[in-house]
Structures are given as structure tokens and as C-alpha cells.
């Protein structure tokens, strides 16, 4: 059964503002649909902000990426959205802003506790509309899809993030492209590369399309925890499916995959750079583009998909999403034949030097 959830293109928002005390984070709401925790001022502010998009790969957060968002938030209210977990980001982000001399008005964590109803909650929508930065934490991207899909909160989110810094890590990056591997049909099962390559229409694979819309995320499929969890095979399968299912053509299908402790920082004009956390092992970001339609991408048969261009970015490398060209990285080519990947460098992940 095909699990692709292809929707009409939404114009949406999902963010949250801040409110509370200049003190350790405390619950600011016990609403049935969400919990809100805030550090900072309860008085709303409306500074001028600048768009930027952060795709972070998971594991330890990248300080430089948050500093970049903080600068663009310009003393406003920074909103963390999550469906599980704690308010641990609040003090981290608030203190980080103080440390670089760019204090924020507040940092709030909104934890969605009712995935079915929170997207229509007026208080949640208000938090999104008043946020000067929005960041989706890790977790399960299925929760974010279920929370946002078809809701007023999504509309608010998509409207808001056109002009403020926006980002996420792990699951929070998985939802950022035009095409989302939503993990809804997979449930608690982790999809590995071998399973995907051996059957691109495996029942574990399902997609949601055109959920979040930013100035720079068009035609893109994302993946995270990338090299660390050996996800190249499933990533290429996702891109092949986007072509095979008619969501993209061989000329338009693209992907961005991010290693742990790595982040891609994208400006509104499509220029981007990579930053990594000190001590990261095999950090990097992969920019992939198809050049041909898959030769074999059908249910029950291993994938054959050739001539995929990859540009691996390292710390300090730059890339232009508009021209799809980079500097300081490693270009190479991948081929998939009967479910087996080969690389022009002899390494599916390119190698660790440009």
C-alpha cells in the first residue's frame, strides 16, 4: 500500500513567543494541549528580524548554529517546539545569547501534549505568531506531522518563518524539506538503508509533502544522523521515490543530509555554510542532486538509480542552493545498481577531506 501523504501546498506557521520570569524555567501553562516553559520577560517585543534556516543533524547541538539564530532574532522571543522531552533548551539558549552580548527577551519551550488538538489551539497559534525565532527539537517527525498537518498552526508557522530564523535538529530537520520521510507507517521501527534499497516501496516508507514552506527548501528531501547511522541508502531511495512518484523530475530532485554535530546555515538568497561542534567525529553535510530518473524503482525490486551528484561539505565549506554549487567541499558521484551503492571515491560517504 502506498503511504505517500501528498497534500496540497500549505502556507503555514509554527512558532511560539515567550513569556515568564527571569529565573529558572517554570511551567507557564498547564493547558491540556501543551505545556509552556519560559525564561525571560513576559512582555512581548517586536524587533526587526532576519530570515535564516538551520538544518542540524542531531546528537550534541551546534553552538554556532544557535548563535547565528540568536543574532537574527535580534533580542526577540526564541521559541522551541517539541512533542517530547523537557525545557532543557531554555537556559542553554538564554545563556548562550547572554554570552555573545545579544540577550534575548525570552526563550520558551512549547511541548505539544495533544497532537490532535494543539494545532488549532489559539494560545499555541499566538505563541507562533509572536516568536522571533522558532526551532524544532529532536524526537519523532511523525509527531510534528500529526501536530501540524492541515492546521491553523501550520498556516501561522509558514507565514511567520518567512522573515525570522527557523530551524531544527534531528526530527526537527526531517520536516524541513518539500518532501518528508514522515515515519508514520514505520511506527517504532527504524528504517535502515538495506531495507529501503531492497524495496523502495517497503511498507515502512511513507512521505508527507509540502508541509513546511520556507524561501529555500523547495524540491528538497532531508535526512539526519546520517553517516553515523549509515543512512545513505535510504536517502537515495527517498530521492528516487520523489521522482518515481511524480513529486520531482530527474532535473529537480535534490536532497540535504546532515551528520551528527553538524549544521547547515542557509540565508534567504540560498547561500549557506557549514558549522560543526568542536570534537565532532566525521562531521559534514551532503548535498545530493539527481541527473537521471531511476531505472528500477518499484515495489518488491531492489533500487537501480544512477549518476547521483553529491557535494560533501565540511566545517567552513559554503554552498549556493540556487546554483547548487559549492566551495571547500568534495564532489563525487554515486550509483545504485540492484540495491548496491558504489562511489566514484570508493567511499559511499566520500571521505573526510575535501
From TrEMBL:
Matching InterPro entries: Class_I_gatase-like (IPR029062), Peptidase_S51 (IPR005320)
CDD domains, alphabetized: GAT1_cyanophycinase
Broad EC category: hydrolase
Signal peptide positions on this chain: 1-30
Alphabetical list of Gene3D superfamilies matching this protein: 3.40.50.880
Pfam families reported in the protein's UniProt record: Peptidase_S51
Domain of life: Bacteria
Single Gene Ontology MF annotation: peptidyl-dipeptidase activity
EC numbers for this chain: 3.4.15.6
UniProt keywords, alphabetically: Carboxypeptidase, Hydrolase, Protease, Serine protease, Signal
Family per record: Belongs to the peptidase S51 family.
Name of protein: Cyanophycinase
Amino acid at each position: 500500500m502506498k503511504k505517500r501523504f501528498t497534500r496540497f501546498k500549505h502556507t503555514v506557521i509554527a512558532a511560539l513567543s515567550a513569556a515568564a520570569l527571569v529565573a529558572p524555567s517554570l511551567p507557564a501553562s498547564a493547558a491540556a494541549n501543551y505545556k509552556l516553559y519560559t525564561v525571560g520577560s513576559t512582555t512581548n517585543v517586536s524587533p526587526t528580524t532576519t530570515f535564516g534556516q538551520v538544518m542540524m543533524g542531531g546528537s550534541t547541538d551546534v553552538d554556532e548554529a544557535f548563535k547565528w539564530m540568536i543574532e537574527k532574532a535580534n533580542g526577540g522571543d526564541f521559541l522551541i517546539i517539541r512533542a517530547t522531552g523537557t525545557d532543557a533548551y531554555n537556559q542553554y539558549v538564554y545563556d548562550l545569547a547572554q554570552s555573545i552580548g545579544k540577550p534575548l527577551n525570552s526563550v520558551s519551550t512549547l511541548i505539544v501534549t495533544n497532537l490532535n488538538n494543539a494545532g488549532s489551539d489559539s494560545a499555541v497559534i499566538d505563541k507562533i505568531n509572536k516568536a522571533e525565532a522558532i526551532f524544532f527539537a529532536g524526537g519523532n517527525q511523525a509527531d510534528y506531522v500529526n501536530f501540524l498537518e492541515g492546521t491553523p498552526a501550520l498556516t501561522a508557522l509558514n507565514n511567520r518563518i518567512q522573515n525570522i530564523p527557523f530551524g531544527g535538529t534531528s526530527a526537527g530537520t526531517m520536516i524541513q524539506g518539500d518532501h518528508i520521510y514522515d515515519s508514520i507507517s514505520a511506527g517504532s521501527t527504524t528504517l535502515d538503508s538495506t531495507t529501503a534499497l531492497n524495496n523502495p516501496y517497503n511498507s515502512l516508507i511513507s512521505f508527507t509533502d509540502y508541509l513546511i514552506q520556507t524561501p529555500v527548501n523547495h524540491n528538497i528531501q532531508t535526512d539526519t544522523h546520517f553517516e553515523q547511522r549509515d543512512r545513505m541508502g535510504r536517502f537515495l531511495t527517498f530521492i528516487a521515490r520523489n521522482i518515481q512518484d511524480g513529486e520531482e523530475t530527474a532535473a529537480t530532485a535534490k536532497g540535504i543530509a546532515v551528520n551528527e554535530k553538524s549544521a547547515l546555515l542557509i540565508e534567504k538568497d540560498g547561500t549557506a555554510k557549514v558549522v560543526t561542534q568542536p570534537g565532532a567525529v566525521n562531521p559534514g553535510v551532503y548535498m545530493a542532486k539527481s541527473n537521471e530518473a531511476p531505472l528500477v524503482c518499484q515495489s518488491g525490486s531492489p533500487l537501480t538509480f544512477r549518476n547521483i551528484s553529491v557535494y560533501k561539505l565540511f566545517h567552513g565549506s559554503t554552498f549556493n542552493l540556487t546554483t547548487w554549487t559549492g566551495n571547500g567541499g568534495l564532489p563525487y558521484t554515486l550509483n545504485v545498481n540492484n540495491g548496491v551503492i558504489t562511489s566514484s571515491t570508493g567511499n559511499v560517504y566520500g571521505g573526510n577531506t575535501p
